[in-house]
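Illustration 12: DUF1996 domain-containing protein.
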Amino acid sequence: MKSFTPSLGLLATYIVGTQAGLRFPCSTLTSQRLDPAAQPGALPSAHLHMIVGGNAFNATMEGDVAERATCTTCQMAEDFSNYWVAHMFFKDPKNGTYHRVMPQPVQPLLGGSQGAQGGLTIYYTQFDLSKDNLKQNPVKSFPPGFRMTVGSPTVTGKPHAGLSYQCIQGGNRGALISTFPTTKCNGGIFTTHHFPPCWDGKNLDSPDHQAHMFNTVKSEYFDAAPACPSSHPVRMPQVTFEITWDTTKFANLWDPAKDANPFVWSFEGTAAGTHADYMFGWKGDALQRAMDKSECFYDGCGSIKKQAMSEANKCTVKDFVRENIDGCMFAPTFHLFSYGVLC
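Figure caption equivalent — predicted structure in token form:
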């Protein structure tokens, strides 16, 4: 396979012929200024995140997350991992106020996954989306306590390959680009984050939360993963997040002919600073069983228990930060809500 079709309309047809990994929805667990990977213990962290997954999520997370979690917002009921991204905002070009852009509910995938509330789509691919290559390329699950990030809020210019934006128009995702669209998107803005798949085999984390991994991603697509280098020899599942941000409600508040792109991340910065965080939390050997199964796609790989999204949506965590993040806001600092004020 060379690329993943951007057409939403063709998605169901495409999936029928692909058999190499997990794909499932997770509803939003919470949106708070918490970041136990990059800023463990910080309460609050520097900027707002949208978080999905298990209810062990907290300002500090060490050890086996799955042992502490009792529920998850993900369809795969044995996945108590946490996945999070910076939150998107609309910055009104008329008065400079900020308004939170909500993630659209993940559209029904396969296997009775309708009913997600916000959230994102998760992929764990073994090689690419059309083959697993397990005989030449065995995949090892992440160990308990593992975490990683991809991208960085301080990046400027162009993000690393695999971190992309698309403007959804008429049911089509449109071209893959490396920055916010400059036109109105009548279906929202679609963002993708591909994580690195090669581990050093030793460290559960690293000071920059990335050095223990090697990023083989060279394109924006679900392409075949090349061999891992000797420095990071362990091939792990290729984790990817997809999110559709509902920018449509702001369409009448800006004019592309005279206004610059009004969408920003909660860390402000630039579009190149898009980033995502992952903390492993699958129960027991559930993920390893799935990755060991050839021609496994979406359905739990024949061994993972699934739950209805109506059940997943019941999973919550408390509001640790106690911060009003809705309505219109002024944010005079670099990181939104450090001193944000409701207007």
